[in-house]
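Appendix B: a complete holo record

For completeness, this appendix reproduces one full record from the ligand-bound portion of the collection. The bound molecule is flavin mononucleotide. The inputs are the chain sequence and the ligand SMILES; the output is the full three-dimensional arrangement of the complex, encoded as structure tokens. No fields have been trimmed.
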Amino acid sequence: MTTPAELTARLAWRYATKKFDSTRKIPAETWAVLRQSLVQTPSSYGLQPWKFLIIDTPALRTQLRTVSWGQAQVEEASHHVVFLARTAMTEADVNRLIQAQSAVRGTSLESLAGYRGMMVKNIVGADPEWIRQWAMRQTYIALGQFMLACAMVQVDACPMEGLDPLKYDEILGLNGSGYHTVVACPVGYRAVDDKYAGLAKVRFTESEVIEVR
Ligand SMILES: Cc1cc2nc3c(=O)[nH]c(=O)nc-3n(C[C@H](O)[C@H](O)[C@H](O)COP(=O)(O)O)c2cc1C
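The structure of the chain with flavin mononucleotide bound, as generated:
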């Protein structure tokens, strides 16, 4: 078990890394666990309306940096993860989940009919713009879980909204794929001279952000 003291230490250790040590790669074993943290992310109804693109190709990283406010982390981090959300949800998406649930848990398709109908009504039948926003919100849960997982194994990360999602879509050939870019997260190891690592956290106090009623 992670003790409360260990969790406190990990939370204090993490920060949005501005400068990565480009010579350090995340070991395969650690990276496998971090990939699983993406796969294991919970989502509303379990629908998983996302995909995670890992950009390994250096030339692609260089291109993406130019549309990420020039942020060096995109090129210098060990790995660069791009979080994609579904652009729309169809009955096929619902069926995919129902089939998976039936296969994994041995549940009959008939007994899942009510659950299926609810998803078709509430998600497939929803306003397209609401669905687009919903899928993006789900994707942020993956980002949060990923960042915490990184901190737990002492891998540094920089959540990154400072990018042009439409340009990402273009460079990554996503148009027409059913997915679009939401946010990114370069990960790796902090450079010893990243001055941001030593800065005190700026957070509103507990009494300002947590209210008990
Ligand atoms: C969704 C999201 C997007 C962010 N985008 C960027 C970014 O593009 N570039 C960057 O350097 N930091 C980015 N940040 C980092 C925040 O500025 C940082 O998390 C915040 O100031 C708190 O500091 P800390 O994470 O170091 O504790 C982003 C953070 C979040 C959660």
